[in-house]
Amino acid sequence: MRTVLVVLFDDVQSLDVTGPVEVFHGAETASPGTYDIRTATLDGAPVRTSSGLTLVPDLALRDLAGGPAPHTLLVPGGQGTRRPAPELVAWLREHGPRARRLVSVCTGAILLAEAGLLDGRRATTHWAYCDKLARDHPEIEVDPDPIYVRDGRVSTSAGVTSGIDLALALVEEDLGRDTALTIARHLVVFLRRPGNQAQFSAQLAAQTAQRDPLREVQQWIIEHPEDDLSIESLAARARLSPRHFARAFQAETGTTPGRYVDRVRLERARRLLEDSADGVEEISRACGYGTPEAMRRAFAKALGTAPAEYRRRFRPVPADRTP
């Protein structure tokens, strides 16, 4: 039996709590006796979430002193983390190191950081607060890109729904892939988002450029990843010199044209591996890699796996399979 203790506080984000809890509850339903899920506030009193819901905890954190440490201590995020209660931070500083596994969702990472539990570790949080986390806690290696990061016994995740992805990964670690797949199907989500998936897709990034010519070029890249996407070709499409185009593109999107092209091609290849029966060679041509070897190198660099292994692991279960 693994105890999952979820810390609650005023102005917590309700989905940061209920998303992971539903995953662990699903695992307990599928394999009874595997998880004991508890929620707790400092004094045992109900709290009001940022959306106005009232959550009634099972117990008080203050009453846990001297008791057995939880297997998984989960700290959600929400508006309440922007003004952390010193007593809650002190409790986490004292009791967090005792938990076998320490997990944060969204800005829950801020509470872990305030308690010194992320010092010397790699971590992430919601993209809108990564800069603040890095600025306030230079001792933490903040990675703003992935949806979750696992560094030893400590796992941190990005905004809201990424907490579900991380919880599924933890259940898979504990109980195996089949149980995690059963839960994912029941919750009508795909067990397909590895932790190193970016918080922003290329399609979202395409909305950040201010000038129409740059947005049009971004959209062209998304629609034609197999074409010539060299700086010279893209600059001509934007009616700019290559040097001016490269500078303007990075200034307005926060990334270079080459990195944007790499992201688009990788996303397209991943979707085709997940959603089509096309072979690796056909997909590599359709995505602009040219050869399966080039696509393999891109996958190894970005995801740490080969295309064939990625397809085996992250392709959704067929629609006719029932939970």
From TrEMBL:
InterPro entries on file: Class_I_gatase-like (IPR029062), DJ-1/PfpI (IPR002818), Homeodomain-like_sf (IPR009057), HTH_AraC (IPR018060), INH-QAR (IPR052158)
Keywords, ordered alphabetically: Transcription, Transcription regulation
Domain HTH araC/xylS-type, chain residue ranges per copy: 215-313
Record has Transcription as a keyword: yes
Coiled coil: none
One Gene Ontology molecular-function label: sequence-specific DNA binding
Record has DNA-binding as a keyword: no
Family matches, as Pfam families: DJ-1_PfpI, HTH_18
Superkingdom assignment: Bacteria
PROSITE patterns, A to Z: HTH_ARAC_FAMILY_2
PANTHER family named in the record: ARAC-FAMILY TRANSCRIPTIONAL REGULATOR (PTHR43130), HTH-TYPE TRANSCRIPTIONAL REGULATOR RV1931C (PTHR43130:SF3)
Stated name of the protein: Transcriptional regulator
Organism: Streptomyces poonensis
Lineage of the organism: Bacteria, Bacillati, Actinomycetota, Actinomycetes, Kitasatosporales
